Amino acid sequence: MRRAFRILLRTVLGLLIVGLVLVGGVLLALRVPSVQTRLAHKAAAVLTQKLGQVVEIGEVDVRPFAHVLLGGVRVRDRRGGELFSIGRVDADIQLFSVLNPRHLHVGTLTLDEPRFALRDVAGQPDSTTLDQFIGAIRRLAGPPDTTKQASKPFDFQLHDVAIRNGHFELERPDRPRDPAYGRSIDYAHMQVDSIYVNVSKLNFKTDTLRVRIDGLRALEVPSRTHLRELTADMQYNAHFWDFKNLKLRVGRSALQKYLRFEYRRFGNFSDFNDSMRVVTQLRGAKIYTDDIAKFAPQLAALKDSIQISGDAKGYVRDFQIKNLDVRYGRRTHIVATRAHADNLPRWRESLMDLRLQPSQVDGADLRRWLPRSANTLVQRLGLVKLNGQFVGFVTDFVANASFDTALGQVSTDLNLKTKSDFDHAVYEGKVQSTAFQLGKFLGDESVIRDVTLSGRVTGTGFVPPLAKGHAVVTVPAIWLSGYRYHNLTLDGDFAGQGFKGKVTANDPAVQLTANGEVDFNPRHQKIALTATIAQANLHALGLLRQPLVVRTTAQVYLRGTQLDSLLGYARLRDSRFTLRGQTLELDTLDVSSSRSSQGQRLVSLRSDLLTATAAGRFEVAAVRHDMETLWHEYRLNFESNAATTAAYYRRKRQQALPSYEINLNVNLKHINPVLNLLMPDLQIADNSHIDGSFRQGETSIFQLGGKFDSIWYGPVRTVATEFDFTTSKLPYKPEVLAQASVTSARQVLPALGNTEKFVVEGVWDQQRINFSTSLAQSGTTNRATINGALSFLPRQVEVVFRQSGLHLLDKEYTIAADNVVRISDYGRQFAIQNFVLSNGEQRLSAQGFISPDPQKPPLQLDIANFDIATLNSVINQRLGGRLNMQATVSGIYNNLAINSTLAVDSLVYEGVPIGQVAGRGDWDNPSSQLRVNLDVARQQQRVL
Description:
Elements: H1 2-30, H2 33-51, E1 55-56, E2 59-63, E3 67-76, E4 82-96, E5 103-118, E6 120-121, E7 124-128, H3 129-141, E8 155-171, E9 189-203, E10 209-220, E11 225-236, E12 240-250, E13 253-262, H4 272-275, E14 277-288, H5 289-292, E15 305-315, E16 318-328, E17 332-342, E18 352-356, E19 359-362, H6 372-379, E20 383-393, E21 396-405, E22 408-417, E23 426-437, H7 438-442, E24 448-460, E25 468-480, E26 483-495, E27 498-506, E28 510-519, E29 526-537, E30 548-559, E31 567-579, E32 582-595, E33 601-607, E34 611-616, H8 620-639, H9 642-651, E35 660-668, H10 672-678, E36 682-684, E37 688-696, E38 700-713, E39 716-729, E40 736-749, E41 753-765, E42 768-777, E43 783-793, E44 796-801, E45 805-808, E46 811-815, E47 820-824, E48 829-839, E49 842-850, E50 859-867, H11 872-875, E51 879-890, E52 897-909, E53 912-924, E54 929-938, E55 941-942
Parallel strand pairs: 5-8
Antiparallel strand pairs: 1-3, 2-3, 3-4, 4-5, 6-7, 8-9, 9-10, 10-11, 11-12, 12-13, 13-14, 14-15, 15-16, 16-17, 17-18, 18-20, 19-20, 20-21, 21-22, 22-23, 23-24, 24-25, 25-26, 26-27, 27-28, 28-29, 29-30, 30-31, 31-32, 32-33, 33-34, 34-35, 35-37, 36-38, 37-38, 38-39, 39-40, 40-41, 41-42, 42-43, ...
């Protein structure tokens, strides 16, 4: 037994030694070059049989139990050309047995420098070399699992593939190179180099190749397009190619989630826009136009980026997106439930359907996409919040949407066609706005500012002079020329700067209905309309400073809207004017302006109350400018600031001055109803007359004169009154020459009774006005003569009376020669110095200040030894006695204070002796009264 065991042990050991020797011999043989060459030929033959394609292997390096390395591998297509080649194949063998060679499991297959050229198979237009390649791989893996075979198939399993520095070519020799070749990918002529990728989870056993791709990166050489990363679960077959769990980075752009290409054949990639259907789900994709330009060269110049999420499908020429979320520029954010566009990337020809959720668009972000004319308007809108639907082309779309802009709110149901440019846009539909600042939008707020309206509009263009169309609009509120109107309606045609149609207003300040045409186009300005004005408060409307309310029926026809070009007429009938409770009714009021063929202008006014004409060869704007200039230069003389005056004339540009003349003629037929509105205390006799002229040239001359049979101002009346005023001035010198006079034959004055021969004259020469005036009391020798000079000093006027006085009861009262009155602070401060009116011992004097400044000395009034009987002929009462009084006055502009003492010696009233009067008077501010306390004594007895 023991011997038998020894024999068996020796036999086993012998066999083991023989086996080890055989294995060692085989392993040594595998390292022999001649053996490896034979193995290479054998492997090539086996692979040729399995792949169904001719396989060439340059060398084989077998590393037992670990790796098989194949070098110089080439696979020929069926026509003998190269299908693909691999510089070196490194197969990580996981399962192989020489005893059972039908099993080959490879862990990782590393392909160094693989090269593959995609070409159409000659004679088979729907077949490519890629189809042959995929078919060969399937034949290597064996038939599908569902196929029943009589014999067991070759069990080939491949877990992972690693490609290092691969190269791919797609060449269509039948197609010329794209014009953008070298700047963007030409799908008919592609060269992809430096391909690196790890592939796992390979499944070749159906007609669909399924793999897991990790970290694919590559470079398309001619266009320099960098694929920086492609990671996805990929499926590929003859008619689709999709990527789940996608992470794609091209250049700076990044996509993620899902992407699918559908095609009739793989070669359709060369006609991507029209033949490749794309299905994608994007989440937070960041896309740069520089990168997209590699596929769509039309976008190369944009240099832009966009962030997008959404679910999209379709061809580039017909693309749909749901749940769209787009972020663009600084603040643009578009959210849409649906977006559809065709004819991309030719976006100007694309029909789009965009259904928005609350979104926002920043005008600054759209600057590059809009023509200049549209940009000017859009930028003024600022950040626009919008919601609604847009259907149509970029140049022809319907917008049913609401817009909340920096200028206000607008909602539209509008068809807009922009054609060649935004200035000629055609639009039709409904528009509604809320406090929309139209003036800012149009770039001019001088006439119109904000507007709230609703209505329907059809037209072309948005900004004059190109805007025209028809509008039926209700305007709850609009700011026009300084007033906010309410409750307006418009129904008519607009063109350029004109409107023709009907306007109604039911505003608190104006109620009217008007029909006609208004055109502010400088080439053919015209106003032609009829209007019924139930009420117009011209003060509330900002047209007058006075609270004048007008009711009238008007017919207006004017050509031109500027004063110099204004020709035509305005006719008012059955008019009523109300001012501060006073009413004026006019049957007729006509104003007309005409110009003769010789250039003579005639402006006339005709009414029941007055007629007036202004005639001459003049331009109204020039007259107004020259009058304003003349008034400013007169004010410089009033202010008498030598430095300011000199600087003004130094800056004034000297030029040839136009010569013209305007003559004024006014007949006051019955002007008192008008005066009752403006100055109720003033009345003028009917048919009074005023005339004047203004001549401009090397010298400016203004003249005005008038004749009045009677004038009433309260209790004052003048009879046979005339006035004349003439002034002249050189344009580039400050000196003024003026003369004025007022005369009246008779007067009625309170307390003085009837007076006569009133004359006042003044001559202005240089910086001084010399004046004189006289007045006589009718039926007496009483008269007054006042002469003096008014001088213009810096910021004040100085008045000095000379050779002036009163003649009362054959006594002369004269004004002291050294008197001075200085007026300053725009007429609010009077500095009175030595103003004394005296006759012998009788003396009346004033000294001090009337001023808003409480620090100034008060006004001192002093009456000494005044014979009261002097006033009898003036006041028509008989008084006697001598008056002495002293008083101080201050605080006239704020806290008034009057303190006085008086004494009358031997007061006599109407021949009755009263006695001695003494007392004082003080002003009481709370009651606004002068409180007087007097004592009366006669024959040394107090009687009061």
